[in-house]
């Protein structure tokens, strides 16, 4: 089984998704999860990018109601709560991430305004029309861009905005090596032009599109690479660790051919 960020964080119930959707993780999956445990973030991004996308989202009500979907340990949740003064419902299916988020929120004095919610992103137990801002960094791919845009729209209050980030091809003719990796990891990955068109077809006005800088990939991969090195020193199976590091190596070689893009979308 090939592994990448795209595979690691697709949960079903309380474990990574597999064909059977049941059973104990394989040793490789365990290595993968050990490598990803307690990283500062689980996808490319940065506080600067979260702040920029928030500015691009435009005016929000005072103390906006925010839903952060696939929030992980909260690299976007906490800055959003801090910057807006609003309340953030932080949704993830992996409870250990939400436990860490709860601790981080309390330490930052934001515990009162961050409400962790264990739920599946395609079946959210949240009422229609109650969010001024729906946010999702590096997680919409789990449902698929189109399904996320269709499924999350009902959460938005009148005037509400959807902000998400998505992995995309930045070329229409990727190298075979890049295509081979991403076809296995995220076969549905599209170009920015394709996603802009898809968002418009789905009934959104595309208010802003922002290609995340390389430094946002470093912010994700550097701590991951350190973790892999430590696990190597600890004698963890080198072949399994090579698989974990594969995604970083692909980025080093072919990084100009794909990126992560932030979208600010408003229902028409
Ligand atoms: C690539 S991580 C991104 C996490 C975080 N937004 C960040 O930027 O670090 C994807 C997140 O989606 C969560 N996730 C996976 N499948 C999910 C599902 N079906 N419903 C809700 N969350 C899910 C994972 O636990 C993980 O925290």
TrEMBL record:
Signal peptide residues on this chain, from the entry's feature table: none
Keyword Methyltransferase on entry: yes
Gene3D superfamilies: Vaccinia Virus protein VP39
GO BP term, example: methylation
Pfam families for the chain: Methyltransf_25
Methyltransferase domain: residues covered: 66-160
Matching CDD domains: AdoMet_MTases
Alphabetized SUPFAM superfamilies for the sequence: S-adenosyl-L-methionine-dependent methyltransferases
Keyword line: Methyltransferase, Transferase
Highest taxon in the source lineage: Bacteria
Coiled-coil regions, chain positions: none
GO molecular function terms listed in the Swiss-Prot or TrEMBL record: methyltransferase activity
Protein's name in the database: Methyltransferase family protein
Taxonomic lineage from the root: Bacteria, Bacillati, Actinomycetota, Actinomycetes, Pseudonocardiales
